[in-house]
Amino acid sequence: MDVQQFHYDNKIVKKFLYATIFWGIIGMTVGLLLAFMFIFPQLTDGISWLSFGRLRPLHTNAVIFAFVGNAIFAGVYYSSQRLLKARMFSDALSNINFWGWQLIIVAAAITLPLGFTSSKEYAELEWPIDIAIAIIWVAFGWNLIGTILKRRQRHLYVAIWFYLATFVTVAVLHIFNSLALPVSALKSYSAYAGVQDALVQWWYGHNAVAFFLTTPFLGLMYYFVPKAANRPVYSYKLSIIHFWSLIFIYIWAGPHHLLYSALPDWAQNLGVTFSVMLIMPSWGGMINGLLTLRGAWDKVRTNPVLKFMVVAITGYGMATFEGPMLSLKNVNAIAHFTDWIIAHVHVGALAWNGFLTFGMIYFLVPRLFKTKLHSVGLANAHFWVGTLGIVLYSLPLYVAGFVQALMWKDFNPDGTLVYGNFLETVSEIMPMYWMRAIGGTMYISGMFLLLYNVVMTIRAGSPVTDELAEAAPLQRVKSGRVAGEAFHSWLERKPIQLTILATIAILIGGVVQIVPTLLVKSNVPTISSVTPYTPLELEGRDIYIREGCVGCHSQMVRPFRSEVERYGEYAKGGEYVYDRPFLWGSKRTGPDLLRIGGKYSDNWHFNHMYDPQSTSSGSIMPAYQWLIENELDKSSTEAKLETMAKLGVPYSDEEIANAQQSMLEQGIEIEQNLYNDPDFVKSYEAAKKYAEENNMDFVEMRNREITAVIAYLQRLGTDIKIVQPEEASASSN
User: Where do the Cytochrome oxidase subunit I profile domain residues begin and end (predicted)?
Assistant: First the structure.
């Protein structure tokens, strides 16, 4: 049989590796800055684009899509060519994938700090960037599938199965979660509202973790661990069970992020059931990875690549044990909204994704430059510094999570809350935040050790741009199953059928959960007193979204005695029917705000935004002084109302036409309320007089952003208060 010679494309692998390291340092640096903001809230005071609320989504997007995303592409492009015995289908598509992805990351790095966000967790980017993501992702999938179709290796190895499932599922998740109606070039409103939006978002959010942070990395594990250990995968049968059970079960688990919320009970229970089942395929994969090292454990002592990979797989096992445990309602009641969840997420991110990426980099760089790693000692030092960093990061946050939960739920014998002031909890866990910052500093220090080691390795070597390889061409065989051929063996040589079956497996759970919630009205009972936001309240809500307030404040009071006592009546699904997007939140660094309306005066909110510590001693909330200085942009208010009306919010033509007058009247009312504070009157009138004397423009308080924010905050939770008890009870059943 003739043997064909061809070349692997290493250029694209190197580009993605360089991008992985670069964006990894950037993303982790932003994360470290955020960690120090908990300790020094005024660290970036007065700089709107460096405020916590705007930087937090930048950190998560940079780490997930820039650092991990580029690592995925590097590993997939390297391993796929070798597993399929073929150069990538198209060098042009490879480069479109690379440069397009980097431009998307740059777009995110610009728009998120400027406040252009959809506020959906892990999907904050606005609609034009969402479209770009879909296009570049299709280019990646086209390249991968094209390579599979021209392969010289008949059977598809398990890593390729995971790559295919990743491509299909991420495409489905991204498209359906990102459906929105644009208002302008960088503003849109979600196609879903309230409860439905929450379900679709966490169907996406949980499975972004599953199919972006997990399945592609499992594919990389199945390739790089056997290669680094020079051992075959422990069990082929276990890999089959692992793959199909994982992709089928994972897609159902999203609702466990919404337990005790206004989501219908049947959806919550489905999420819990499948989340508990998820431990079996997850641990099956972990066992398959670790047992691949049988007979090679002596190498782990000296080989830093294997060290990183062993801890990565162990971290995966820990995170995938903890995930199902956190989905149990009694555990979730303790952990949700606390720093426990932050610890859980970072065990997965820092150990599983981070360490597997580091191991892959140390494996690939010497091979791509025909040399040895510059310093095994430095790589081992990176391993130990990084491992200690993970421990110092996560353990204090587990403690903080328990402290928060216990303090929030603690009652006096007379039935009052022991810690009625939310800030008492914040003060108690500050030492844990210090330790988290120290752990994060150690982890990123390891990144700089890696950078130095990689640069020195590259300098010592010579690049292998197009690596020569040879393999026999693929001979056509009978399309049906050969006698004695197992079904899965047949499927492994049929990539189209494999992809179709994987697509069906991931669609079932999504369809069963989402379609009834969207179409069956009884899942979201309406409440007659709940009305759409006024134009000024809607503008205030958009500013609230812009500033990332949802990153620290929830708007979901769960039906617990402690929460009802602290915040007020528990949340009803009908309260959120006009919320596009939903703002239930996933972390309480500050208190829940669902019932904040009317609780404090307009002056209190004004002072709280200007100087949080003046109203709340010990607060770690940053100041939002630009809200008080900035003029409210009312130019697109009518367009916003028209877009909402197209989505089903009952704004009449008259309300839209009178939007400017409505905002002015409500703004004047709030401005007059602010005059109740003598200090406000003194400073405001002085500023006004100074402007007049110096012929400067002066923006009346009624036309400033703070007024819109106050209007929104004072609206929150007030609809439900005017409902008669019998009606509220009937509506919630």
Answer: 16-463
Dig out the tokens for 397 from the structure.
């946050």
Give CA–CA dist 684/664, Å, rounded.
19
Split at pLDDT 50, 70, 90, the class of 418 is very high
Neighbours of 63 (CB within 10 A): 24
Nearest to 385 by CA among 350, 340, 349, 344: 350
Phi, psi for residue 409 in degrees, rounded to 5: -100, 5
Q: How far, rounded to the nearest angstrom, does the alpha carbon of residue 66 sit from its chain's CA centroid? A: 12
Name the token pair of 391: 């421990």
Interatomic CA distance for residues 326 and 622, integer angstroms:
31
- What pLDDT, on the 0 to 100 scale, is given for residue 597? 95
The number of beta carbons lying within 10 Å of the beta carbon of residue 196 is: 23
Can you tell me which residue has the tokens 């599983």? 352
The percentage of the chain sitting over the pLDDT mark of 70, rounded to a whole number, equals: 98
Geometric angle at alpha carbon 210, from 207 and 214, rounded to 5°: 155
Mean per-residue pLDDT, 322-335: 95
Positive or negative torsion for Cα 328, 334, 336, 341: negative
For 151, what's the count of Cα atoms within 13 Å in the CB-facing half-sphere? 23
DSSP states of 631-698 as a string?
BP--TTHHHHHHHHHHTT----HHHHHTHHHHHHHHHHHHHHHHTT-HHHHHHHHHHHHHHHHTT---
Whether 729 has a pLDDT exceeding 50, the answer reads no
pLDDT per position as a tens digit, 175-233: 999 999 999 999 999 999 999 999 999 999 998 888 999 999 999 999 999 999 999 99
Could you give the CA distance from residue 587 to residue 574 in angstroms, rounded to a whole number?
Answer: 22
Do residues 313 and 225 touch, judged by C-beta distance below 8 A? yes
Instruction: Give the residue from 284, 329, 309, 481 showing the smallest Cα distance to 379.
Output: 309
Q: Quick one: which H or E segment has residue 8?
A: strand 4-9
Residues 6+ apart with CB under 8 A from 546: 54, 115, 116, 117
Give dist(CA 314, CA 317) in Å, integer. Answer: 5
Q: How does the average pLDDT of the chain come out, rounded?
A: 93
**Neighbouring C-beta atoms of residue 442, cutoff 10 Å:** 19
Identify whether the C-beta of residue 497 lies closer than 8 Å to the C-beta of residue 491.
yes
Using CA atoms, how far apart are residues 60 and 34, in angstroms rounded to an integer?
11
Return all residues near 253 (Cβ < 8 A) that are at least 6 apart.
Answer: 206, 207, 210, 271, 274, 275, 278, 323, 327
Q: Give the integer Cα–Cα distance in Å for 118 and 542.
A: 10
Burial class (CB within 10 angstroms; exposed 0-12, middle 13-18, buried 19+) of 320: buried
Question: Residue by residue, what is the 3-state secondary structure of 441-461?
Answer: HHHHHHHHHHHHHHHHHHHHC
Cα 226 to Cα 167, 220, 590, 619, distances in angstroms: 23, 10, 46, 51
Contacts of 724 (CB under 8 A, 6+ apart): none
505: left (phi over 0), alpha (psi -120 to 50) or beta: alpha
Q: What is the largest CA-CA distance in the chain?
A: 96
Written as six digits, the tokens of 451 are 């950078």
Instruction: Tell me how far apart the alpha carbons of residues 94 and 77 are, in angstroms, rounded to a whole number.
Output: 9
Half-sphere exposure of 681 (CA within 13 A, CB side): 6
Closest CA to 546 of 660, 626, 649, 639: 626
Of 416, 425, 406, which is closest to residue 591 (Cα–Cα)? 425
Q: Is 255 helix (H, G, I), strand (E, B) or coil?
A: helix
The residue type at 512:
V
* Closest alpha carbon to 626 in 684, 709, 558, 515: 709
**Helices and strands in the chain: count of H runs, count of E runs:** 33, 4
710 band by pLDDT with thresholds 50, 70 and 90: very high
**Rounded Cα distance, 436 and 426, in Å:** 14
